[in-house]
Design goal:
alpha/beta, FAD/NAD(P)-binding domain, 17 strands, binds flavin-adenine dinucleotide
Length: 413
């Protein structure tokens, strides 16, 4: 029997598969790797810079260039898709208003705009006049409270006010004798109520006079209320600051979405590359999956292709500088890389905007015509945005996944 095939388990693929399955469609999700969520901050950025800091992301979405992925979707659909994801995951995992950016501290002490955040993070919003204490753990690598507090204290808050920030340390190994534990080690330890109590007591002892205590984002992997437990003991709000990958908040979102997929009946083939396809009369008939016993054909009613961009290897540049999409050979907005990388490392590089163009339903096009009538694209493959600079990759992934799924659901109906 033909099923809807979703290729890719990043934010875009997971959202497309969930949305399709919730509409009662049989869905198979095939992915070679875990996608970018576990590397991310565990928040949902809609649009953070355009190019200046954005406070109202939907207003900025309304003003994007005509070749931007948001342009054909529009602010209302972007807001609805983000709200859908937030409500699917529930208030223990994602809160916020798609129309308003929060300005949260990073592990470098800079301030990043984001839209939906985990409830354990929101009290960390950088607001003028507030006093912050940043607490590090001696045995946890990659989080320096001096760096975070020093940079925060010398940066004006986005509202123009000044803030105070001071560092503090606690000494509490997650595992006896381990001197440079990762965030994941602490998160797993903090899933245990007794260890979380000891952690909270240690933080309370050093918090001093402040309005908010900033902590590394390790407050539990599976037990989502650890931040409340710590906050109650400390007697004031605490907030998580995401660390570099692997990211505990990102893994929380990934695992929660996988749980929703299982509950919705999605068949999930993880660790397998889609290597080819069969097409007839302008429609995809099947995709070929590299399975353990040899290639396997999966009959496809529709395909949502959400393979990411350069970072996942879906787009590649060869030694001649030619850019190609590797599975379907889809037409790209540019095919020669040398002109697309500028001399200034920090300046925008048009290479990152290369991808497929789509029609209003999200189908990759060659000229104006859909390449295959039943092939849809979502996420990082779609041209027109420098996602990491704009902080728009999450919002684009969710909005284009919902667009593709709804086009399939609507078309089938
Ligand atoms: C350094 C960096 C920093 C970034 N920072 C931000 C940021 O701060 N904010 C923001 O919003 N965005 C940011 N982005 C962009 C964001 O990470 C991406 O837009 C987002 O991850 C795209 O999600 P996706 O689901 O489209 O793809 P991915 O998360 O890349 O997932 C792709 C999936 O497809 C699978 N796959 C690929 N090809 C195949 C195949 N042939 N067969 C089977 N499976 C396949 C992969 O294994 C993976 O599961 C950043 C990107 C980079 C590179």
């Amino acid at each position: 029997m033909s099923r809807d095939i979703v290729i890719g388990a990043g934010l875009a693929g997971l959202c497309a598969a969930l949305r399709l399955a919730q509409a009662g469609r049989p869905v198979t999700l095939v992915a070679k790797g875990a996608g970018g969520l576990g590397l991310s901050q565990g928040t949902i950025d809609i649009l953070g810079y355009a190019p200046d800091r954005v406070f109202a992301p939907l207003d900025a979405v309304r003003a994007v260039a005509s070749d931007h992925p948001y342009s054909g979707i529009g602010p209302d659909a972007v807001a609805a898709s983000a709200a859908w994801l937030r409500d699917e995951l529930g208030p223990e995992l994602l809160v916020g208003d798609p129309g308003v950016n929060l300005h949260l501290p990073t592990a470098l002490g800079s301030i990043r705009p984001t839209c939906l955040a985990q409830p354990s993070m929101v009290e960390g919003a950088v607001v003028g006049g507030r006093r912050y204490v940043v607490v590090g753990v001696r045995q946890l690598k990659d989080f320096s409270p001096e760096l975070v507090a020093g940079n925060l204290a010398r940066t004006p808050a986005p509202d123009g006010g000044a803030i105070e920030a001071h560092p503090a340390w606690i000494d509490l190994p997650a595992r006896p004798g381990e001197a440079d534990a990762s965030g994941l080690t602490y998160a797993r330890a903090l899933d245990d109520v007794a260890f979380a109590d000891a952690f909270a007591a240690a933080v309370a002892a050093v918090a001093g006079e402040c309005d908010v205590v900033l902590l590394p984002a390790v407050l539990g992997l599976r037990r989502l209320g650890v931040w409340r437990q710590v906050s109650a003991r400390v007697g004031r709000p605490v907030a998580e600051v995401p660390l570099q990958p692997p990211s505990v908040p990102g893994i929380r979102l990934y695992e929660a979405l996988l749980g929703r997929l299982r509950a919705a009946g999605v068949r999930h083939v993880q660790g397998s590359l889609v290597t080819g396809f069969q097409a007839k009369d302008g429609r995809l008939r099947s995709v070929t999956v590299a399975a353990a016993g040899g290639p396997r054909e999966l009959a496809a009613a529709h395909v949502v292709y959400a393979p990411g961009g350069f970072e996942s290897g879906a787009l590649a540049v060869d030694s001649y500088g030619t850019i190609a999409e590797r599975l379907f050979g889809l037409p790209l907005t540019a095919s020669s890389s040398p002109d697309l990388v500028g001399p200034d490392f920090w300046a925008p590089h048009r290479l990152f905007q290369v991808g497929v163009r789509t029609d209003a339903a999200g189908r990759p096009v060659d000229g104006e015509a859909a390449v295959y009538a039943n092939l849809y694209a979502a996420g990082g493959l779609i041209a027109g945005a420098e996602r990491w600079r704009e902080k728009s990759g999450d919002g684009i992934a969710v909005a284009t996944a919902v667009r593709a799924a709804d086009a399939i659901i609507g078309g089938a109906a």
